[in-house]
TrEMBL record:
Protein's recorded name: SAC domain-containing protein
Domain SAC per the UniProt entry, residue ranges: 112-475
Keywords on record: Membrane, Transmembrane, Transmembrane helix
GO molecular function, one term: phosphatidylinositol-4-phosphate phosphatase activity
Keyword Protease set for record: no
Domain of life of the native organism: Eukaryota
Organism: Blastocystis hominis
InterPro entries assigned: SAC_dom (IPR002013)
GO cellular component terms attached to this protein's record: endoplasmic reticulum
Lineage per the UniProt record: Eukaryota, Sar, Stramenopiles, Bigyra, Opalozoa
Length: 559
């Protein structure tokens, strides 16, 4: 792993690479603007305050600039190039020396730390994790990207907003000092064998940097066509014969398949109230919907929309909105857009996931025709490409329990269904259905989401992989008493967060992605917000505790 030495002085910060300590970068605050210079170092061993793995970015806070250094990482496995993929474990903020002093910045840094603690950030020095394999054709990072992420997909480049101060100095930066990062989920499972076919499996979920937020605070689509909490998931298969394939879904080295997920692309809101399920409000501008689907078609080709909304209540109103259903044909395009509405909660209640066969039967032809990307790493030949993408959503395309950011169970189960079938299709082609039946402990397509007879086979691996991706183990496994208690606790925590804490965390997210206009107004708002939010949160927690105590006292009374 590449390491960089960092020295903090009274007037500057210096950075050098262990590979070449004679080349120093000098970072200074020049009138609230970052300045970077390259100088020669004559010392054989420069003085060092600490070592880092790279720079995540620079934050211009209240009259001061802070550099975010990546101080600890871990290797989670190797990517398609056979080189390590890293997960960021720790980030340290160092203030650029200046005459300005503002204690409020400690609170701003604390807010950013809260977000960095909850999310997972990944990068590689050898491949671009922001782009699907079909776009990179399995090529390694360009020489230019080793110095600054120039060709990365800014939609998924986590540190894009905070590396811009370094852009004017990209020609003098140290190699691999600023990594190309994503946030979301990456998992690598080596050495899997199914029907005498050996392969490795990678799962990459890339979260968009646009319109991130909490459950009720961030909904729908913005005027640029960005939907809340958009995720692109790519499943990559690396076979021992050199074939790489991938399948992409939206919110190997061989073969990849991609899916996406994201909020319902209408202009709508669900403002937090003291109700457990706040009312939904839909606004009447169709142009943002059209823009969103135009963007998807430009990026992925055809789109298969799988809508998991309930067919009752506010969700029925949202799903039947004339802006969304059934007229979702994008403007000025003749490319196909398929729409399927499957009431997940009604069809699969009581964990009847075998009923997903109904959804799969209706969409299988679209998924098969959409295909997947396939590449021969030995001959560098593109064998096939993915022509369409599956876009899955329920009301909460992203959800969270126990105060952490997580994927929603319904969306995850459906994406797992498609990803599992596509994995067998990638490996075995037209024989996939027969081989899946042979692997399953129960016959029929409905068994795709059930456990297999062999706990070490692909079904077991798949369940664990996508459960990690969703972080929803207690919701998709066996229904135990402990699971019921956990769900009840999470529901109370969610209720409290929705009404009293998510607004604050929303500000933390906006600050992390550099979406806050810094200045005196921001300082005043932040000081008052922390105090008021904390007091309200404490008051509601005490109210719930008193209610629970009163209930137990009442039940304990003799009849």
């Amino acid at each position: 792993m590449i390491r960089f030495g960092v020295s903090v002085y009274s007037d500057c910060i210096t950075v050098f690479s262990e590979d070449d300590p004679t080349h120093l970068l000098v970072l200074t605050d020049s009138g609230y603007e970052l300045s970077v210079k390259s100088v020669s170092n004559n010392e054989a061993t420069p003085s060092v305050n600490f070592y880092c793995a790279g720079i995540l970015g620079a934050y211009k806070l209240s009259r001061e600039i802070f550099i975010a250094f990546i101080t600890d990482v871990k290797v989670i496995g190797v990517g398609i190039t056979g080189k390590p993929i890293y997960q960021v474990e720790m980030v340290e903020f160092v203030k650029l020396p200046s005459l300005e002093q503002n204690s409020i910045n400690e609170k701003y840094i604390s807010m950013i730390d809260q977000v960095l603690y909850k999310i997972k950030i990944y990068y590689s020095h050898h491949e671009d994790l922001t782009r699907r394999l079909q776009d990179t054709l399995c090529r390694p990072l360009s020489e230019e990207d080793h110095y600054f992420p120039t060709t990365a997909d800014h939609h998924f480049l986590f540190n894009c907003p905070i590396i811009q101060p370094f852009y004017p100095f990209r020609s003098i930066l140290l190699r691999d000092l600023i990594p190309t990062t994503i946030f979301g989920f990456v998992s690598i499972i080596p050495s899997i064998t199914v029907e005498q076919t050996s392969f490795s499996l990678l799962l990459i979920s890339r979260r968009s940097i646009y319109r991130n937020g909490r459950r009720y605070n961030t909904r729908g689509v913005d005027l640029f066509g960005h939907v809340a909490n958009f995720v692109e998931t790519e499943q990559i298969v690396l076979q021992n014969n050199g074939i790489i394939s991938s399948f992409v879904q939206v919110p190997p080295l061989p073969p990849p398949h991609s899916q996406i997920r994201g909020s319902i692309p209408l202009e709508w809101s669900q403002t937090p109230t003291l109700k457990y399920a706040p009312s939904i409000r839909v606004f009447g501008d169709r142009s943002f919907l059209n823009l969103h689907f135009d963007n998807l078609l430009d990026r992925y080709g055809a789109v298969v929309v799988v809508n998991l909304l309930d067919k009752k209540g506010d969700q029925l109103m949202l799903g039947l909105d004339p802006l969304f259903y059934p007229k979702i044909t994008p403007s000025q395009t003749k490319r196909p857009l398929e729409f399927f509405w499957f009431d997940f909660h009604a069809e699969c209640k009581h964990f009847r996931y075998d009923r997903l066969a109904k959804l799969f039967d209706g969409t299988q032809e679209c998924v098969r025709n959409g295909g997947y990307f396939r590449f021969d790493s030995r001959t560098k030949e593109v064998i096939a490409i993915q022509h369409s993408v599956i876009r899955t959503n329920c009301l909460d395309c992203l959800d969270r329990s126990a105060c952490s950011i997580e994927f929603h169970a319904g969306t995850n189960v459906v994406q797992t269904l498609y990803a599992q079938w596509m994995l067998f299709y990638q490996l075995f082609g037209l024989k996939c259905d027969a081989i899946m039946k042979n692997c399953a402990s129960e016959s029929g397509r409905g068994a795709m989401c059930r456990n297999l007879s062999n706990p070490h086979d692909i079904q077991h691996v798949f369940n664990n992989l996508w459960s990690d991706n969703a972080d929803e183990l207690s919701r998709t496994g066996h229904r135990t008493l402990q699971g019921i208690v956990n769900d009840a606790v999470y529901s109370v925590i969610r209720y409290l967060n929705n009404n009293f804490r998510d607004g604050y965390f929303e500000d933390c997210i906006n600050l992390t992605f550099n979406h806050v206009q810094m200045g005196p107004n921001a300082d005043r708002r932040m000081k008052g917000m922390i105090k008021n939010t904390f007091m309200m949160f404490v008051a509601v927690v005490l109210t719930f505790e008193l209610t629970i105590i009163s209930t137990f006292v009442y039940l304990a009374k003799p009849v």
